[in-house]
Amino acid sequence: MLHEIAEATRGVIDLLDERQRVAALRAVTDDDLRRTWAYTPGPRPGVVLGELRRDQRKAVHRLLSCVLSPHAYAQVMAVMAWEDVLDDREGGHRDRHQGDYCTVLLGEPGDDPWGWRFEGHHLSISVVVADGRVSATPFFLGANPARVTYRGRTVAQPLRLEEELARELLDRMGRTARGLAVVGDRPPPDLLSGNLPRLGDIEPRGVTPAQLDRPSRGLLVGLVRYYLDRLHGDLADDEFDQLDLDRLHFAWEGSSRRGEGHYYRIQGPELLIEYDNTANDANHAHSVWRRRSGDFGEDLLAAHRAVGHR
């Protein structure tokens, strides 16, 4: 897997001309750049996908597909295409386009460490490689509109399972557990973690695995696994093996009725998953998976530096 990621990254670099390399290549030691991310519209460092040649764009897509699972790659492609859907709904006045996504390369394979970020509106994937290990958080996906319908039936919904799996968990747990899980009638207007470079103190609230019956515990673990399975199999397995599943908390805020604003989060000692759908009459969804000590490869880089000092 690591060899494939390195080869795909090298494939992007080899196709860039000198001007593009200047724009795309930065140092992984540039901590401010590495930790600065956003899911709102706006310019980003790096090369713009829509300004690349066909072969260069395909190389960037291969880079993404080496890290992402097939279903997550499909979600990412949908999120990007959704920019044209949103642009049409807005009458084109903000000039959105599915090519408005940027790739910045943090060092090169052969260096150690190295990485890259692919980012734009409602999409951010940060990858860092150090000492043969891979970090890929924060991992953000969003969609506006959250769903497109025809006569009340959903035609397309890029983050469908992010919502449906959480609803299934909420619906299946017993009344007592549900009373613990639902911690507020009004959801927050956005993700509590926002795009902060470091996770602040967010109080663990809600229901724990010990307070759930066995089927509900399985649904909670399955929901966590779904987020981690945004990555290819071995990468997701490595992330899952590091979790302390007994110390998870699941909290829901807002309405449980479809079409009304809602939010949930899952927390563990190192894990934060957040999902909200509140804006635009609850038709604008955000989701993120983060690691407290590992976002932007911080844990991998710290271990790498410690070995270097020794």
The topology string of helices and strands comes to HHEHEHHEEEEEEEHHEHHEEEHEH
Q: What quaternary form is this?
A: single chain
Uncertain parts = none
Shape: globular
- What is the number of strand segments? 14
Query: What structural class do helix, strand and pairing data support?
Result: alpha+beta
SS strand fraction: 15-25%
Give the distance, in angstroms, between the N- and C-terminal Cα atoms.
Answer: 29 Å
Q: Give the mean pLDDT.
A: 95
Largest sheet: 12 strands, mixed
Roughly how many Å is the radius of gyration?
20 Å
The portion of residues assigned to helices is 25-40%
- Tally of contiguous helical segments: 11
Describe this structure as you would to a colleague.
Strands 1, 2, 3, 4, 5, 6, 7, 10, 11, 12, 13 and 14 form a twelve-stranded mixed β-sheet that branches. This protein has a two-stranded antiparallel sheet with strand order 8-9. It has helices at 2-15, 18-24, 31-35, 54-67, 70-89, 160-172, 175-181, 214-228, 233-241, 279-282, 298-309; strands at residues 25-26, 47-48, 102-106, 114-120, 123-130, 133-135, 139-143, 148-150, 153-156, 182-184, 249-254, 262-267, 271-277, 285-291. The chain is globular. The chain is α+β, with helices and mostly antiparallel strands. The protein contains eleven helices and 14 strands. Strand 12 and strand 13 (271-277) form a beta hairpin. 39% of the residues lie in helices and 22% in strands. The longest helix has 20 residues, at 70-89.
